[in-house]
Hints:
heterodimer, A: alpha+beta, 6-stranded mixed sheet, 10 helices, 25% helix, 33% strand, elongated, B: mainly alpha, 13 helices
Amino acid sequence: MVSLPRAGGTNGIHDEPRHRQPVRIDVEELGKSFGSFTALNDVSLTVRPGELLALLGPSGSGKTTLLRAIAGLTATEEGTIRFDGEDATALGLRERRVGFVFQQYALFRHMTVFDNVAFGLRVRPREERPRAGEIARRVRRLLQLVQLEGLEHRFPSQISGGQRQRVALARALAIEPRVLLLDEPFGALDAKVRKELRRWLRELHTETGLTTIFVTHDQEEALELADRVVVMRAGKIEQIGTPAEIYEEPATPFVCEFLGGAARFEVEAREGETDVLGGTFPIESDAGYSGPAIAYVRAHEIEIVSREMAEGVPAVIRTVRPFGPTITVELSIEGRAERIEADVPRELYDGGEIKEGQGIFIRATSARIFPAG
Amino acid sequence: MTVPPSSAWTPRFGFRRSPSVLPGFGLTMGLTLTWLSLIILIPLAGVSIRSAGLGWEEFAMLAWDPRTVAALKLSFGAALAAAAINTVFGLLVAWVLVRYDFPGRKLVDAAIDLPFALPTAVAGLALTALCAPNGWIGSLLDPLGIKVAYTPAGVVIALVFIGLPFVVRTVQPVLADFDQDLEEAAATLGATRLQTIARVIMPALLPPLLTGFALAFARGVGEYGSIIFIAGNIPYRSEIAPLLIVIRLEEYNYAGATAIAAVMLVISFFLLLVINLLQGWNRRRSGLAV
């Protein structure tokens, strides 16, 4: 059992009045390639002051390159990055003052937790460097914030993964960064610690008020944690929106597929409408479209109908996963090789109607249709 | 008779109280000790026994002979100096080989091992030819009044040549594996390049540097072939201890030879032990100990 730190209370890093407002980041027409591989292709993006933004995408989508470019760790060939209007690409790493948390934490193994957190303060030029007592005071306050008091004399090898993650965070916050950037912050942790740290990071963000960007390939993490989500693919931005917008109104087939849990159907559209699984749905992006189209139906958008209703599509239950508030079943329908997942209410399962091999009728209650090609 | 349940029954062989999850301790430890005995301990015991047969006074007289002391001083002094020089320049070479890609890098990398393979006598002859007053390098230094060949400086140069690969080859893999993230982390935290090297990279390189230093030093103490050509072997001045041992043997003075050998053995063992302890202390201090 991991006891989890609570951000908040009186021990915030800014218990003095905040001298800085959160920073707005403007990314303008950013381009970067590694040899023949285009990592970023004309990426433009505005991160609002104080926002918690997720960069979501599969590996190779350019999300980490974008984060590293904002940090100044990767030089870009085209475009500019502005912090509050000031061209950050002209600044060195030191002047950029970016708090960066690495995926594998990148803690200094030969330094204690205390020394790791103090590093950013100790390497300052003599005239800007706080005195030793002041450094100690600040480090302790940060360790309190990330709930690692009492561990300051341990080495990174002597603490758990979740604790290392928090040391990395405290170390990044020690330099009083203008923005906080996290690369796959929970990638190396197990499921339980991940979930708890996720909630804690959300609270920490509220506490620090910093403009924060994190990279993830986990859609659940992005949707749960972020104020807005940027979905990336092959060096381009597919969609920017709130988690609700991304989930309810995916802009492209890619976003729809990447969020997962949706069955894909290749269908024919006529005059902006198409039939999928016994239902008729409009094409929202192109009202008058006729021709081949792709439809996505999520598991919870499939309902089981009784035989008498004519519009149902016959299906056979193949597997049943009987746990949780809804029961997930895998169905096979005629003329389709892949199975379809559907969520059915618990009552139906308890009523004995849901069992493997059972023939039923299903219908889609809603669907997202995109013109093909 | 009842058989105890296997899980409750543990063999009690001497100090091996808790059964390890890794099997084969007995076998591997036995083989290790046998091998060590055959290769190292028995020959060394021979030296000790031979010199122990001398009697303390005779041993002290042989060991404290001024010529012997001068030879020992030169051997250990030159080996330490050469190992120190190699630590600095070996680190530099390893750094360049790992960090930069340049045409001919593979060739340079391969050339590093040549001192391992080259017969040491050849190395000694080549260095002597270069450093002698009429050689390429010696002729440049001679007008400045610097003499290398046939002086203790020549001994150090020969040992620098012999010892270089030890430092390069121990530092190189550690540097190659060094996590780039750490340097980037230091940079985002505001460290300058120099601060990053001093505070982040060097601490990681200290263990291999110490190991490389120890290996180069140990090799230097025992080196014979290359030195005897360049040193000139002037008694009390540029005569190394291993050569003095050979000289005593040629005089059929076996007691004298073993006495020098025993002193070398003790000093070498002591110095290597100190380096190992230093290594252990560094690991503990930096939390790297398992």
